[in-house]
Amino acid sequence: MSHDAEPAKAKPTRTVWVGRVLSGLCVAFLLLVSGSPKLFMPEVALPSMEHLGWPGKHLLTLGVLECTGALLYAVPRTAMLGAIVLTGMLGGAVAAHLRVGDPLLSHTLFPVILGAMMWGGLWLRDERVRRLMPWATRN
User: Fold this and answer.
1) pLDDT tier, 100 (very low <50, low <70, confident <90, very high otherwise)
2) Phi/psi zone of residue 129: left (φ > 0), alpha (ψ -120 to 50 degrees), beta?
3) Where are the alpha helices (DSSP H) in 5-55?
4) Do 118 and 23 meet the contact criterion of CB atoms below 8 Å apart?
5) What is the DSSP string of 50-98?
6) What is the pLDDT of residues 26-84, one digit of tens each?
7) CB 43 within 8 A of CB 67
8) Exposed e or buried b per residue across 82-92, where buried means at least 16 C-beta atoms within 10 angstroms of its C-beta
9) DSSP state, 3?
């Protein structure tokens, strides 16, 4: 056996697959439902932006940041950086919805739920994240 050969990778566990599914749902939502309309359908995104007190001129910037964060999150090597970028954006969304008095569960806490799904999916699929955030210990 050559020293250049890579060791065989372990077969993904059920936990890793659950993490991939959670992460995939987050990426799909962020790209298809939230980020892309800001980039490609501003007439659809503009009313909600104005409701939150954001001028339409920021649609492009927010759309690029959101889609970039989602793409970074989707790639295993850059997933943690994407999660950090998106966590900042989700925090801003919570603040914006809270400021205008939107309903708590459907609007204000939705970014918190999405963030929990995002970090939970990353935790389940990435051993490095589990080492950084060891929520469960083995006896």
Assistant:
1) very high
2) alpha
3) 14-28, 36-40, 42-51
4) yes
5) HHTT--GGGHHHHHHHHHHHHHHHHSGGGHHHHHHHHHHHHHHHHHHHH
6) 999 999 999 999 999 999 999 999 999 999 999 999 999 999 999 999 999 999 999 99
7) no
8) bbebbeebbee
9) T
